[in-house]
Every structure is written in structure tokens, then in C-alpha cells.
Amino acid sequence: MSGRTQAIRPMGRLRRWYGEGPLQLLVLLASFALAGYAGVRLLDGDGLLIAVWFAGAALVHDLLFVPAYALVDRALRTAAGRLERKEWINFVRVPAFLSGLLLLVWFPLVTGQVERYEAATALPAGVFLVRWLTVTGALFAGAAVCGVTLLQVRRVRRSARKQRPPVVH
Amino acid sequence: MSCGPVGRQGPAYGRSMPRTPHVTSPVDPGFWRSPLRGPWLTSVLGAVLLVGITVLFVTGLLSYAAYNPNLSPVNDKTPDKGLLGFYLFDWPTDPHWLYRLNQGLHVTVGITLIPVLLAKLWSVLPKLFTLPPARSAGHALERLSLLLLVGGALFEFVTGVLNVQLEYLFPGSFYPLHFYGAWVFFGAFAAHVVLRLPQAVRVLRQRGWREQLRGPGPEPADEAGLVAAAPAAPAAPAAPVRVGAPAAPTVSRRGALGMVGAGSALLFVTAAGQTVDGPLRRTALFAPHGGGDPGSGPNGFQINKTAAKVGIEPRETGELWRLVVGGGPRGEVKLSRTELLQLRQHSAALPIACVEGWSTSDQWWRGVRLRDLAALAGFDEDPPGVLVESLQRHGAFRKAALRDNQVRDPRSLLVLHVNGEELSPDHGYPARIIVPAAPGVLNTKWVSRLTFGEL
Q: How far apart are CA B173 and CA B170, in angstroms?
């Protein structure tokens, strides 16, 4: 026991002071060296604004975007709380998620903000909003059809069960 | 070694415990209640991102090399790249669809990965709020690295997604931001993979796929199924992430993964079509060059920038237009379009492929070989590279340099006709360049001057 303690003492000391193993330290230092080398070049220009974009992307995502969609989802779940089966919420949640995802990715085009688009590409810019609304409508309609079908199937099964001789409860 | 909870133990939340009724803050253990979060879900999403982001990084570096930034200052938007250009090589002209494939992959895979990235970040979110913020110097460094990882990933995806939509909101030129940002991100990404991959592999091996997916609904609310992220590696014991009693599940793990997959599939299906002509392009409902073509007929294919957009006026391209060919021992030669048409005409079937990810199928171009024009300038054998100048007054690539291997390729043309008709103004009338496998912006339109040998 004491021999082994002797052998690992330097590592043990590092772990005590640093809190992690030597591999972690080496990997992170190498990563920071690369990040520093590229980062100096990244920030060459409007450095402050670029740094704000870089860190801001993480902060906006974690502190605004995620809470926003979590709140919407919570509101949905609260509304679904009155339902017989909570899983029905997914017939709203899935189309809303897919539609929201399209809007998130293609926000500039869908909202018609890209002024140079038509002049540059000779393509119409107004189509994206129409397409998004159409796809959104189709997603919700599809979910509704699935939901109603499922409901019918359950109803048929339930009535089939009722026709069988009653089982002692 | 055990990977079970080590060190301080949080309150024993379990199925028998009453739910915490009032939880106000994300640092409270009871705040994170989704029954979906757990090491298995995080590992699955992480494995997808490992493959996907590697594809993005490699195709991104290849695209950077395709511009031949070391050839001439006019091609180089990142002159202080230093060691980061260590891998640069002469971009080939074969296969002629190389850049089309590379950039189609880069942009389409990137767009398709967005739901996976968002789901991955969601799955580890409780870790962001763990207290104390840093247990040790090592932990503090790791969290700093995670800021670079998450900030870098989002920075790269946001700049890329904005750039393909021509929405240049980002603070500066796209090329240096996306290139240097990629290296910062990749450093943090590689470190994260080295430190976390063994753990993810272990979780995936131990728990398997089928059991996790086919299991009857969500995992029972055990501790492992609730931890917001994979437990710390055995070599680095972490304070356990304390999480609350699980909320009643409203979607199974299979359902949640299916939803992420459906999001990726939807983004893919509504974007991938912008890499082909014909009816498939109509399926790309949201891609900037999807939906349809700007026109019909021989010149009806996709346009990067119209003549009107860059301020090309008809009087510049009319009778008075001359192509100046120079740089060689024979001095300058001026050629009208009629004179160019009297030179030997050659054909090549080549695509236009843009850095933004869209491309056309092969178009049938016809014009004068660049190496024949080099011979006019006096380079009869082994022509050198060429500096191509456009009538365009602004734009990052109104001048572009082509390397000697590109000039020498028999399919590299100064184009006068496309698909059997004269070039339209939007496709570069009176003359444009086409080079196999080169990025779209190197296929200069409205060419006014070719200077061989002086880049």
C-alpha cells in the first residue's frame, strides 16, 4: 500500500490541487492553444462584437431560447392535463415542433427580411412565407387525421371488448 | 471502478417521494423533471453529432482549399491564417463534380444536423446550472472549454445558416468568421470528444439500442435515467447532478428521438433538392435556390448574382466590349466577341456549384479554351495560372486567380454560349469562365481581362 502511494504521489498531488487528471489538463491546454491561435484571428476586426456574437449565441440559446420553448411546452402540457390521456398532446406538439423548426432555420427568408434576395437570384422572395404557412397547415392537418384515426380505432376496440361476456372484476 | 454516484449525495428522490411542489430556480434540484434526459439519450445524440460535425469540418476545410487561397491575394479572404492553412493543396479539376458534392454535403448535412444539435444541448442543459459553478481548477477549465464548444457550435451554425440565405447580419466578412470560428469550435469539439467519448461508448454498449428504444415507454424514474448528463468519468468524479422527481412522461424516448429524426428529415427533404435541376429542385421548398428555376430555356438555370444586382450596364457589354488578354511575351491582345467566336470553339458539360450549397446539373458550355487564350498571349506550352478580372465594380470576387492546372484542363473555357444559346446577361454575357470542380465564384462572369502568369 505504502509503495503504491509513493509511486502515484505526483499524480495524487495534481489531482488534489487541480481536481482532475493529467490527461484532462493536457487535452484542454492543447484545445485552448488552438482556440487562442484561431481566436486572435477571429477577433481581428470588430473584436468586441464578434466576441459578443460568439458568447451571446450560447447565452441566448441557454437563457432565452430554451426557456421560451420549454414554457410553450409546459403551457401545452397544462392544457393537456385535462385530457383523458396525456399522450394526445403529441398531436399538437409534433407539428408545432416541426413547423417551429422550419421557421427557426429559414427565419430570414420566411419573414421576407432578405432585401437582396430577389435582386441577386432573380427568384421570388414572397414564396417562402406561403410555403411555410402551407406546410404548417399540412402538418397540423396530418396530425389531426392521425389523431382522429387513432381515436376511432380505440373506440372500435373498446366496443368490441364490451360485446364479449363480462369478466368478473 | 464504479461509475455510480460518488461523493456528496443529493436528497434521495425516487418514485416514492412526493413531488416538490414549488420549484423556482433552475439551480434547484427539482427543477429539471423531464423523464427523457439521461446518459443514453445524450450519448446517442452525441454519436450522431460526432459523425456529422466531422463531415462538416472536413468538407469545410476542403471548400476552403478549393478557393486556392495560397495562389493569389485576390483569392485569399484570410491572409493571416498562418498555420491553419497547413494542409492546403492544389485544388484538382477532377472529378468535375467534386466541389458540387463537397459543398452540397457541407450545407445539407449542416442544415440536417440542426435538430440533433438543439436536442443535444437540451439534454445536457441541467449541467449548465449546477452549483457550485466550479468545484476545482480542472472543472473551471472544462466549463470554459464547454463555453467555446457551445458558443462555437452555435456561432458556426448561425453564420452558415444566415450566409446561405444571403442575410449578412454577422459582424464582418463571412469567410474569416466562419473559417476561424470553425477552428476555435473544432479545438473545443476535439477536446470534448477525447474526454467524453469513452463514457458515451460505455453507456451505449451497456444499455444497448433495442432495450432503450423498444422498452415499454419511458424509462422507470430511476436515478440513472434522470441524470441530466452522463456521469463524470471514473477518473474525474463529479458531484452528482441532482435532479427532481420525474414528471409523468408524455412522450417515450423512442418518440422523442423520432421527433428529432423527423425534424432532420423534414429539413433534409425541403433543402437537398437545391443541388439538382429538374423536378427534384421543386421539393426544396425552403432552400434559397430551391422551388424552381429563375427562368426557362437554355439560360433558365440558377443565378448567383444578376447583372442588375452588380451594376453591369448594357453599354459595357455591347459592341464596345473587348477582352484584353495579356501577361505573356506577346504583350496585350484585344479581342471583340466576334473575333472570339472565330477562334476554335470547344464544349464542356459542367455544373455551377456555389459555396452556399446549391448547384446546377451539368450545363453544356461552349467557348474558347483558356489554354488557347494563353497561347495567344505567348504561352504556347505549359501555360501558367491566370488572373481573371470582371466588369463588376464591387463584390469580393470581381477578380479571381486560377492555378495552372485549372488553365491547362481542356474543359476550362472562356464561355460564349450555354446550352446552345448565347449567354444571357445574368449568366455573364458577353463572356464568362467555367472551370471543372471549382467553386462558383471562381467562374467569373462578365470577363474583361485575362492576365496570364501575373497573379
A: 8
